[in-house]
Design goal:
The protein has about 425 residues and is mostly helical. It has one domain (about 40-425). The protein contains 21 helices and no strands. It has helices spanning about 5-15, 20-35, 40-55, 60-75, 75-90, 95-110, 115-130, 135-145, 155-165, 170-175, 180-200, 210-235, 240-260, 265-295, 300-310, 315-330, 335-355, 355-370, 380-390, 390-415, 420-425. It is globular.
Amino acid sequence: MTLPLIIMLVVLVALLIMGTDIGPAMIVSGILYLLLSGQDPGLAAEAIMNGLYNSFVLLAVPLFIFAANVMNAGTISDRLMGFSLALVGRMRGGLAQVNIMSSLIFSGMSGSAIADAAGMGKVMVGMMVKNNRYPPGFAAAITGASATIGPIIPPSIPMVIYAMVSDQSVGALFLGGVGPGLLMTAALMVTVWIIAKQRNFPTEAVIPWRAYPLIILRGIPPLMMPAILLGGIYGGIFTPTEAAAVAGLYALFLAGIVYRALGLQTLSKIISDTVRSSAVIALIIAGAFIINYILVSEQIPNQLANWLQTFELSPLLFLLLISLLFLLFGCVLDAMTMLLVIVPIVLPTLKALGVDLVHFGVVVVVNMMIGLITPPYGVLLFVLNSTTGTPLKDIIREMWVFITILLLSLLMMILFPEIVLWLPRVTGYYEG
């Protein structure tokens, strides 16, 4: 490790400690490295442009963010909650079960855990704590835990980023997320059922059967979105990036024309929020391209691969160790940084050990989603704290049981790769 690299890392950590956003911090420290090593600072711009040139799939990110924002602003989320209430409201802990089911359905449209927690989360927590039916900490905790399903069930923004970094099929990764997403949903629902019985949480009022046709009819248009997206992708009608554009247009059509719940002022705010969120991600991507160029020029990935191979680790043991590493990083780093900086470092080792990269991709995304709800810096903890007003200590106290259940689900995905790979293989979309 050279002196310029050491100085770059020290400056990067110092900037983060001072509260600088991760994107600008990586760009500044990367340019500093180029200056100290006697290289042209213009290489930073070249690294960014080269990284973007073959990354058409990145266009899907702002488009999925736009679709999620439109659905949160319109009445689509409310209709999905009504549909979920009809499905699982009769179960013990009914509203908590509705919370999980709504996240599962919403995840097939937005691809973002934060969009799920910030959108439906505020409404769901408000419903659950009304008349002291559920403790605020529990309501916020199950909202955060269920929101982690969002980027696992397709479409998924993190999986789009991982596909770009690892050169894997977006379609195979999307299909690979279905099994794990359903496993996480089932695990959370069983956990809530047990807790609800122990703590005597209420069931919801029985919905008369005659009301079901109208509820289903109201839910069909939003539920068509994942069918259109996945059917179009796997039917060869459009690419994942084009599917993101279709998602945005369909959400706009539903909220603006069908439901008439989207005015020009609201649309303007949606576009503004989308641009801001996309700009933050773009800065992280730009910084990551520079850092990756530096790490490759320093031969860090290859040196790490050669060093790890001296331990003669089995693929399973390495996958368990790297999962532990990502869980630890997930407590302090955001998902995009880990995908764009850390994943490229370990890719040579994964390939050398013969680890399936589609399996690894889904596992690592699940890792990062658990990190979003893990103290001390889980992003979703702060999102829920700010949107619902629930004290962090109350959320964290209730969150540990859900973190444990999700970790057990993750362990099953690691030990039994077919949970991830069965659907891509049986559909003929992946032959790995």
